[in-house]
Amino acid sequence: MRIEESGHGESASRKHLVFAYYVTGHGFGHATRVVEVARHLILAGHDVHVVTGAPDFVFTSEIQSPRLFIRKVLLDCGAVQADALTVDRLASLEKYSETAVTPRSSILETETEWLNSIKADLVVSDVVPVACSAAADAGIRSVCVTNFSWDFIYAEYVMAAGIHHRSIVWQIAEDYSHCEFLIRLPGYCPMPAFRDVIDVPLVVRRLHKSRKEVRNELGISNDVKLVILNFGGQPAGWNLKEEYLPPGWLCLVCGASNSLELPPNFIKLPKDAYTPDHIAASDCMLGKIGYGTVSEALAYKLPFVFVRRDYFNEEPFLRNMLEHYQSGVEMIRRDLLTGHWKPYLERAVSLKPCYEGGINGGEVAAHILQQTAMGKNYASDKFSGARRLRDAIILGYQLQRIAGRDLAIPEWYANAENELALSTGSPTSRMEENSSLMRSYTEDFEILHGDLQGLSDTMSFLKSLAELGGVHDSEKNTEKRQLREHKAAAGVFNWEEEIFVTRAPGRLDVMGGIADYSGSLVLQMPIREACHVALQRNHPCKHRLWKHALARQNSKGLGPTPVLQIVSYGSELSNRGPTFDMELSDFMDGDKPISYAKAKEYFAQDPSQKWAAYVAGTILILMTELGIRFEDSISMLVSSSVPEGKGVSSSAAVEVASMSAIAAAHGLIISPRDLALLCQKVENHIVGAPCGVMDQMTSVCGEANQLLAMVCQPAEVLGLVEIPSHIRFWGLDSGIKHSVGGADYGSVRIGAFMGRKIIKCTASDVLYRTLSIDNGINPDEMEDDGVQLLESEASLDYLCNLSPHRYEAIYAKMLPECMLGDSFLEKYADHCDPVTVIDRKRMYSVQAPARHPIYENFRVTAFKALLSSATSDDQLIALGELLYQCHYSYSACGLGTDGTDRLVQLVQEMQHNKSKSEDGTLYGAKITGGGSGGTVCVIGRNSLRSSQQILEIQQRYKNATGYLPFIFEGSSPGAGKFGYLRIRRRGKLVC
C-alpha cells in the first residue's frame, strides 16, 4: 500500500493498482523476465509502468495492452562488455559511477517526483539499486525480483580491478537495504543486502508455437538435428563456417548482424524473432550463460552447450544449476572460435535433462507483488542497512553470509571438491584416520619410490586417486559436478602405468612480505595446507585423449602428437574451467620455444583457463631455460588444499608441485634453489604476476615447524630458524581476496623501484658535488666522511642494502610522496624493474613504498635475533611489536584493508584486555604477503589459552562481518624434503 502524507488516503482502489517496474540496463534477460511478471500483473487488471533502456519490442511483442507504459530511462549500466564473452571490470565500475553515482541527486529527485505523479502503489526493481532509495524518498514500498544483485557482482570487480571504487558497493548495498524483501529466483547468488527472502519458481516466457509449427515454418523436418546459437551478439571477428557443424545438422543464429554472411547450414533469425519458440524447437543450444538462456533451457529440457563468460559472477551459480539437472556441456572457448563443435554437440544430444521444477515464477511473483501493494506485510522486523553490510559485501565472492533469514546457498550449489573438503576435522582426528588411510592406499597402490612421511593429506590424495578408477568404470554418482572432475581425471590416466606424485605447501609470511623484491631478509613458514600433483607420461599413441582434444587432433590429419591434459580439482572455488588441454607443439616456434610474451598471450585468450599458465607454464620454462624437449604426452591432476586468494601462496604451491612432478617423471635433477627460481619465472613471465621469490623458495626449501630465513638478493637461503617451543604462529584469513597480480601490489612495487632509482640518482649527484674540483677537496681526504657510502648508494642494487639511518639522514626528505608516471620517466627514463611497466598516466606513491623495505629489513633482522633470545614476556612483546609496525607500514603503502585491519585490532584488544585474561597470550599481528586482503599472521604463546583466543577472534570477526575466517595452524615439509612418489596400481579397483 502506498504511504501517503496525512490526509491524502490511498492512491486507488484495491482492485486497480499501479506498479513502477525498474529494469536494469544489463542485457535482455532481465527485460524478458520482467515481461512475464508484468504480463500477469496486467492480466489482473493493474497498470505497469516499465522504466527501462531495452527496446520497446521486447515488451510490446508479448504485451499488447493500454495498461503497459514504457518509460525509456537508463539508471544503471550493468556490466560493460569488451566483447560478447568478456566483461571489462574497471570500465563497468567507471560506467556505473558515471551513470548512477555522479547524477545521483538529480536521479533521486526526478524519480521521486515521477513516482508521486503516477501515484505508484509499489516499486519493483530488477534489480536497479537507486529505485529502492527513490521509493523510500517517495514513501512507497519496494520489492526486488532477481537472482543476483549488483553489490555482489561489483564487489569482485572492486577487489580485482578498482579498489578506489569501493564506495560504489557500499552505496548499492544501502540502496537495496530500503527494499522490503527479495523475491528470489532459482540460480541465485549470495545477496547479503536482503534479509527477507521469498523463493519462487523459474520465471520463463511462455511458448507461442509448438516444435512442429516452428520447424514447418522454417522448412526443417523433425529428424534434422538443430542447434540454436544464442550469444546476444557474436564474438568479434568471428566467421561461421559450414564444417563447424556435424554432417546433416543445421544451426539457427540469433542476433546476427545484417552484414554477417552465413554458410548454407546456418539460418539467420530475424532480430525480433521470439526465441523461446525456436529454443523449444531445437535439439540443443550453444551460447553463453545468462538467466534467460538457462531458465528456458531447463524449462524446455534443452541441452545447453555453454562457453564461459569472463568476470561475471552470476555465471557459476547458473552453471551449477544447469549441470545439476544434467542439461549442461561446457565448451572451451578456443574450440568455439576454431569450429571444433562436433564432440560437444554430440555429447549434448546424448544428455537427458531432468528439471521437473515449476516454471510459473512469473505468475507466483505477480501474485506476491499484488498482495504486497494491497498492504500485506511479508517482511519481518529487521535491522538491515549499511552498518551491517559494509564488511559482508566487500568480502566479495564468498559463500558464508550474515546471519538472518534463510540465505543458504541452494542445494545444487556446493563447494567443488578439493583437499579442503577432504581434510576436515581436528588434527587429532586426522591422525586417528591415518592408519585406515594407510591400509587403503597400500591395498590400491604399490609405492615404487618415495615416502609418505606420515602426511595424512598425501594419504587422502592417494585414496582419491584410487577412487578415480571406480568413477571411470561407473556412471553411478549423484554428485554431478564432482563426477565431472573425477571423470575427466580418470579419463586421462592409464591405470596400468606408473604415476608420479609430488607435494608442495603454501606459506605463512611471518616477516618480510613485499620487501622480498627489494632484497630483504624474510622469514617464512611452510603451512600444513599443500598442493598435490599426479602426473603420467605416455607415448602419444597410447595417450587417452578427451573427445574434443581427439577431434582437434584428427582435424589436423597429422596423427598422434604429444598432448598436455590437465584436470584441476576445486575449479568452482574461483570460477575457472576444470580442464585444460593443448598440443605441446603449441609451445614451439619452428625449432625454438615460443617467447614468454607469446605464452602469456596464449594463456590470456580465455580467462577461465588462465589458471593453466601456472601448471603448463612450467613446461615452457624448462624448455627455454634448460633446453628440455618433451616427446611424450603428459597427463596431470592438480589438487590443492591451499586456499586461493588468501595470501598464502597458493600459486607458488601449484607451480612448485607441477614442476617437481615434471622433473621427476622425466628424470631431471634440479637443485631446490634452482627449481624455486624457475618457478618464479613462471609467475613473472608467463602468468604476469610481479612476485618476488620467497613464496617459491619456501614451498621448495621449507621444513616443518621451522622458519626459512632467506636474503632475497636474489635468493640466498641462510638456513632454518627454529621456532621456540613457547611460541606459535597462526594465520587468520580476512575473507578479502588477495592477488599478487592485482593493481595495488604492482603499483607499490613500482613505487619502491622508483624510489630506489631516485635514491641512486640523488647519491650520484651528492657524490659528484662532493668530489667536484671546484670544492678544492682532495677525494682521498673524504673517505672517512662517507665517499664510499655514497659510491655504494649510487650503485644501489637493492633498497634493503640502505640502512634506515642513512635513509633518514640523506634521502627521506628528497623522495616525493607521489609522482606521475610520465614525470618520472621524463626525468629518470626507467625504474629498472624487469617485471613491471610504468603507466605514464598513473600517479604512484613513492615515499611509503620505498621506506617500507628499508625498515622492514631492519625489523626482520631484529625479529630473527629476538627468536633466539631468552624466553620472557619482553621477548614476546618485542616480537609482537615488530609485527604491528610491519602491519601499519603496509597500510602506509596503501596495501591495508578493512578486514585485515579489523583482525589486527581484535588481536590488540585481546592482548590488552586484562579482564579477559590475566596473562596475555597473543602479542602481535600483521597483514601478510602482497597485502590488499588475504591473511593476517598472529604470534602468541604456544598454549591452549592462545588457541581459545584465536577461536574467539574468529567468532567475533564472523559476528561483525558475516565471514568465518579460515585458521591456518600447523606446518609441513617443503617439496624438496618430500621428494616424489612413484606409484603403480596393484590391480582392478573396487569402489
Automatic annotation (TrEMBL):
Pfam families named among the record's database cross-references: GalKase_gal_bdg, GHMP_kinases_N
GO biological process terms on file: carbohydrate metabolic process
UniProt-recorded Gene Ontology molecular function terms: ATP binding; kinase activity
Keywords noted in UniProt: ATP-binding, Kinase, Nucleotide-binding, Transferase
Keyword Chloroplast in record: no
Galactokinase N-terminal domain span: 496-536
Sequence ranges assigned to domain GHMP kinase N-terminal in this UniProt record: 614-702
Highest taxon in the source lineage: Eukaryota
The protein's name: L-arabinokinase-like
